[in-house]
Specification:
The complex is a heterodimer of chains A (276) and B (356). Chain A is mainly α and 276 residues long. Chain A contains 9 helices and no strands. Helices cover 74% and strands 0% of the residues of chain A. Chain A is globular. Chain B has 356 residues and is of the alpha/beta class. In chain B, helix 3 packs parallel to helix 5. The chains are: A mainly alpha (276), B alpha/beta (356). At the A-B interface, helix 1, helix 4 and helix 9 of A face helix 1, helix 2, strand 6 and helix 3 of B.
C-alpha cells in the first residue's frame, strides 16, 4: 500500500461523497481536541507546569547556595536553556505519548483511515502538540523570570521561529520513538532516557566542539541564547548558523517522520498497528 | 443436516460473470461497493507460520448488509483489517466503491470508516458531540455543516440527551453507541462494524439493530458486520459469509442458508408414553430434550418429513396420544455450527475475542 495518492480533486470511479471540509477543518479539529483533552486532565496539566517550576527552583536556589555568584552570572543562559528543555520535552513526549495513547484507545487506526492520509494527520497532531507546548513553556518562562527577577530580550517572531526550528529536531526524535512504540509497544524506559540526553544537547559546547551543531537541539540552543540574551533579530543572525539550524531541523524531522512511516508500515505487515 | 443449496467455498469459484442468468448486469470490482479478490495474509514463518486469511474473494453490492461469521481464529478481524489496509495483505486486490485501496488509499478512505472490535474507537474525555465533530472533521468534513445529521444520529441511537456528556461518564452500552455513531458521523457509504453489539443489553442491542436497518435504508449505506451475536446477523444482514481457518466456507443469503438445512426439528408432546416405548423410540429416532410433564412427555426430534411420518406411525402403533407438534426451525446459530463443525467455538466466541 502506498501513500502516493494526493487525495484531492481527482476523478474517481464509484460514488463521489460530498466533501465540505479540508485541511483547515482538520487542523482546527486536531488542535481543539488536543487542548480540550489536555484541559480535561487538569491535575496532570497543572502538575506538569508545577514540576517544571519546582525543578527549576531547585536548580536556581540550590545553585545559588552552592555557587552563589557563578549562578547569578549565568542565570539568563540557564533560563533560556531551561525554557528550550521544557519545549523539547513537551514536543518529544507529547507526540510519543499521543501515538501510544491513540494506539491503546483504538483511535490510531481511525486516523490511518482518513482521506487526508496518515502522514498529514500525524503532522497536524504534531503541530497541535507543539502549539500546546509553546503555551505551557511560555507560562514556565514567565514564572522563571518572576522567580529570578531577571529580564530577557523577547523579539517574539524571532524567538518563536528559532525555538520552533530547535524543537523540530526533538520532535523528529519523538516521531521516531512514537513509531517504535507502535511497533514494539512498551518502550517507555528507552523513551525516558532521551529527556536526559536533551540536557546534554542543550548545553553542548558548540564553540569548543563545533561539529556538535549537527546534533539535535544544539544549534537551536546556541541561537536561542543569542536571540534571548542579546536581542538579535532573525535577519541579524549569521546566515550560516541559521542554515545549519534549518538543515538540522529538516533532517531530524524528516528522519523521524520516515522512521515513523517505516515503523507503522512494519506494524501493518505484522498486524499490530492498533495493538497496545 | 446438510447445507447443499448454499454457495460453499465461493472463493474457489473464480471471478463472477459479467451478466447473471436472468440478464441483469452483474457486479464488477468497479461497480461493487466492496470487492475483494484473492486476499491472503500469513503471519510468522517456518513452524510458527499462521495463515490467517487464505485466498478470500467476494463482492458486496451497494446498500447490501453482509454479515461475517466464524469461530475464534477464523480470520475475521484480519480479513477486515486487511481489506482496510490496517494490515498489509500478502496478496489480493481490494476495491472500495471501485477504488483500489492499495493504490489509492486516501481516495478509498473517503468512502469508508470502521468500528473495530475490542477498541474504544473514540475519545472518552471528549463529549459525545465533540467526538462526532472530531471524526467528521478528520474525514474531510466541516463539522458545522453536519450538526443536524449528528443530532439525528444521536436521536436514532437514543443518546441525544447525553450529547454534552463526556463519554467516560456513560454506561458501556452507551459508549458502544457513541463509537458506532462516530463511525457514521462523516460521509461514509461503506462501514465495517466488528462486534457492534458487544457488551450491550438485549434492549440496547435491539435498538441498535433497528437503527442500523433504518440507517442502511435511509443513507443507502453498505454495511459489513462481524458479530458473534447470531440474532444481530439474522436481523440486520441480507447475506452471510462464514469463515473457518482463514477461508470462506459459505457465502449466501441468510434465508438460503437457513432453508438449506433440509432436516428440521419437531417438538412433540404426547400422553400415555411408557418407559419401554420411550426407550424403543430413542433407539429408532434422534430424540432429545425429553421432559416429563404431569402425565405428558415432551421431546424434540431431528427429522425430515419421511422420518416424522414414521415417528407418528410408531406413536400410533403404540397407542400413544399425540398432544401437540411444533416445528423447530433451525436458526443461524445452528447453521453456523453445522457449517464450521465447531460448537465449542461459538460458545466461547459469544464472549468476544480477537481473531489474530
Amino acid at each position: 500500500m502506498t501513500g502516493g495518492d494526493n487525495g484531492r480533486g481527482r476523478a474517481t470511479a464509484g460514488n463521489e461523497p460530498p466533501r465540505s471540509g479540508g485541511y483547515y477543518h482538520l487542523m482546527k479539529a486536531v488542535i481543539h481536541r488536543d487542548l480540550v483533552i489536555w484541559l480535561r486532565y487538569p491535575v496532570n496539566a497543572a502538575t506538569g507546569i508545577l514540576m517544571a517550576l519546582i525543578f527549576f527552583g531547585l536548580i536556581f536556589y540550590g545553585g545559588r547556595l552552592v555557587a552563589g555568584q557563578a549562578i547569578d552570572d549565568t542565570i539568563e543562559g540557564l533560563i533560556v536553556g531551561y525554557f528550550l528543555w521544557t519545549l523539547a520535552q513537551g514536543a518529544y513526549f507529547g507526540i510519543t505519548n499521543d501515538v501510544q495513547a491513540e494506539a491503546g484507545w483504538g483511535t490510531l487506526e481511525r486516523h490511518f483511515m482518513t482521506p487526508f492520509g496518515f502522514g498529514p494527520v500525524i503532522l497536524a497532531k504534531s503541530i497541535a502538540v507543539v502549539l500546546r507546548t509553546f503555551l505551557t513553556s511560555a507560562v514556565v518562562l514567565a514564572a522563571m523570570l518572576v522567580m529570578t527577577g531577571r529580564s530577557l530580550e523577547l523579539p517574539l517572531v524571532t524567538v518563536v521561529v528559532v525555538a520552533a526550528l530547535a524543537v523540530a529536531s526533538a520532535f523528529g526524535l519523538g516521531l521516531a520513538m512514537g513509531g517504535l512504540s507502535v511497533l514494539y509497544k512498551r518502550i517507555n524506559n528507552v523513551a525516558n532516557l532521551l529527556q536526559f540526553a536533551f540536557i546534554g544537547l542543550i548545553s553542548a559546547p558548540v564553540f569548543e566542539i563545533p561539529w556538535t551543531r549537527i546534533l539535535p537541539l544544539v544549534q537551536g540552543s546556541a541561537l536561542l541564547q543569542v536571540v534571548m540574551r542579546d536581542g538579535d533579530r532573525l535577519w541579524e543572525l549569521d546566515p550560516l548558523a541559521l542554515a545549519i539550524l534549518v538543515g538540522t531541523a529538516g533532517f531530524y524531522l524528516g528522519a523521524g517522520y520516515l522512521a515513523f512511516v517505516l515503523a507503522t508500515r512494519r506494524a501493518r505487515r505484522l498486524g499490530v498497528l492498533g495493538d497496545y | 443436516m446438510s447445507g447443499s443449496r448454499h454457495n460453499v467455498d465461493h472463493a474457489s469459484d473464480g471471478p463472477p460473470p459479467d451478466t447473471t442468468t436472468d440478464g441483469e448486469q452483474a457486479l464488477t470490482p468497479e461497480t461493487a461497493a466492496l470487492s475483494v479478490d484473492g486476499l491472503s495474509k500469513t503471519f510468522g514463518s517456518g513452524e510458527d507460520k499462521v495463515t490467517a486469511v487464505d485466498d478470500v474473494s467476494f463482492t458486496v453490492e451497494p446498500g447490501e448488509v453482509v454479515g461475517l461469521l466464524g469461530p475464534n481464529g477464523a480470520g475475521k478481524t484480519t480479513t477486515i483489517k486487511s481489506i482496510l489496509g490496517l494490515v498489509l495483505p500478502d496478496e489480493g486486490d481490494v476495491r472500495i466503491q471501485g477504488v483500489d485501496v492499495a493504490d489509492r488509499p486516501r481516495r478509498a478512505y473517503e468512502h469508508v470508516d470502521a468500528m473495530l472490535e475490542g477498541a474504544r474507537n473514540d475519545y472518552w474525555r471528549l463529549t459525545v458531540r465533540e467526538n462526532l465533530r472530531y471524526f467528521a472533521a478528520i474525514r474531510g468534513n466541516d463539522p458545522d455543516t453536519l450538526d443536524d445529521r449528528h443530532t439525528e444520529l444521536l436521536e436514532a441511537f437514543d443518546i441525544a440527551g447525553e450529547a454534552d456528556t463526556e463519554v467516560r461518564d456513560l454506561s458501556r452500552g452507551m459508549k458502544q453507541k457513541v463509537s458506532l455513531a462516530s463511525v457514521l458521523a462523516g460521509d461514509v457509504s461503506v462501514a465495517f462494524l466488528d462486534e457492534p453489539t458487544l457488551g450491550l443489553d438485549v434492549e440496547s442491542s435491539l435498538t441498535l439493530q433497528r437503527e442500523l436497518v433504518r440507517l442502511v435504508e435511509e443513507r443507502d449505506l453498505t454495511l459489513f458486520v462481524s458479530s458473534h451475536d447470531m440474532d444481530v446477523i439474522e436481523a440486520v444482514c441480507d447475506r452471510v459469509i462464514i469463515m473457518n481457518q482463514g477461508r470462506i466456507v459459505v457465502d449466501d443469503t441468510v434465508s438460503n442458508l437457513l432453508d438449506g438445512f433440509e432436516t428440521k426439528g419437531y417438538r412433540i408432546t404426547v400422553r400415555g408414553l411408557d418407559e419401554s416405548t420411550l426407550a424403543e423410540l430413542q433407539d429408532r429416532f434422534e430424540l432429545s430434550a425429553v421432559e416429563r410433564l404431569d402425565g405428558r412427555v415432551r421431546f424434540e426430534v431431528a427429522a425430515d418429513s419421511a422420518t416424522f411420518y414414521r415417528l407418528t406411525d410408531a406413536l400410533e402403533a403404540a397407542d400413544v396420544e399425540l398432544g401437540g407438534v411444533e416445528t423447530v426451525q433451525p436458526d443461524l446459530a445452528e447453521a453456523f455450527l453445522e457449517v464450521t463443525g465447531n460448537g465449542d467455538s461459538l460458545a466461547n466466541g459469544a464472549t468476544g475475542g480477537t481473531d489474530q
